[in-house]
Amino acid sequence: MLSAVELFTGRTGHNAEETRVFLELAKNLLPATSDRDRRQIANMLVTYPEAPDALIDLLAKDKDDLTAFPILRHSTKVSVDVLVEIAKGGSEAARKALAGRSHLPRPILAALCETADAQTIRLLIDRKDLTLDQHLNERLSKRADLIAELGEELSKRQALNTENLISQFLVLPASLRAKAIAAAETMSVIRSAQAPAHPSIPAIDTARLRLHGALLKAALLQKRNRFTDSLGQGLGLPSSVSDMLLQEGQGEALVIALKSLGLDRPRTTTILVRLLGEHMAVEEIRKLLFLHRNLSTGAANVLTSSWTLFGTSANSAEIDGTGEKTPRHVGQFEDASRPSRDARSHRISSGTTSAQRVRRGAANLG
After folding, report:
1. Fewer CB atoms near the end CB (10 Å): N or C, the chain?
2. What is the torsional sign of CA 299, 303, 305, 306?
3. Is 301 within 8 Å of 262 (Cβ atoms)?
4. C-beta atoms surrounding 152 within 10 Å
5. Is the distance from CB of 188 to CB of 298 less than 8 angstroms?
6. What's the whole-model pTM score?
7. pLDDT of 4-13, one tens digit each?
C-alpha cells in the first residue's frame, strides 16, 4: 500500500480512471496496512491535491489516532459530516486534533461543545481567532462535567448567566459559589415581590417535624445513607444528588439543603458536627453556620429546587404511567398516620447518648 501511494503521489495530472483504480486498491489494502505505514500514508496524502476524498475520509476515521491526526488537523478535503461524526463519537485525541483546525465550521464547533472534555474545550476558548457565540456558550454552561474546571473561564466569557450559576451550584468552583448564592437571593426577592400576598396563620407541619427528627437521628447515629435518603425525600432530589451533599467540598450545599428544609441552627450544628466534624476543622464549620444564619430560606429554596434537574441524564427519577417524571422520594413523610408514642420514645432514647457526645463539640460553635 505504501508503495502504491508513493507512486500515485509522485506526479500530478491523474485522470479519472487512474484515481478510481487507486482508490479501489487503497480500500482493499488499507485495513491490512501496518500503523506505521498508515501514518506515513496520511502524512503523504494530507497535502496532495489529487488525493481521493473517500480515502481522506477513511484516514480521518482511522482507529489509530496518529494516523488520523494530520488529516483531522490539516486536511481541507474531509467532509463536514464526517468531521461532525468524529467529534461526536471519536476519541478525545481526535477531538483535540479537530480543535486545532484553522477553519472550524459551526456544526463541528457545536459537536465539540457537546462532547469534548475540559482540556479540549480550553483549547477552543483560548484561541484568539475563534469566538463562540451565545448559543455555543450556553451549551458549555449546561455541562456539569466542565463547570468545576472551566467555571471561571466561562464566567469571564459571560457564559454563566444567573440561571446557570444557580443550577450548576453543586459543581461550581468555590470562587463562584458566593456569586451563585447572591443570584439566588436576588431571584428569591423577585419571586416574593411577584407572588400575591396570602396572609394566613402558619400551621404546624407534622410531616416536616418528623423529617427533621429523622435527619437528626440519622446524623446522631452517623447513618449516612439513611441521612441522604431522608434528605432526598424531603427535597425531592434524585439519589445521585442527595448523595453528593455529604461528599468533600459540599458543606455549603448541605447547609443550603438544611436551610431549605427549615432546620434551625442547633439542629444544623449537630448535623454538621456529626457528619462533617471528623474531617472538617471547627473554623470551617463556623463558616458554614455563618452561611446558615445569613442565607434566606427563599434563596435556599431557589437553589435546591434547581438541583432536582441537576444531571438529568443520570437522574434516577422514575416515569409514571402518564409519561411524566416523578421524584424518587415522594410521600414517606406525608402525614398519613401518627407514629405510636412508644415508637417516638424509642427514637428519642436511641439518640440520647449520641446527643450528649455532640453537645461538647457543638458548644464551641455557638
Report:
1. C
2. positive
3. no
4. 14
5. yes
6. 0.61
7. 999 889 889 9
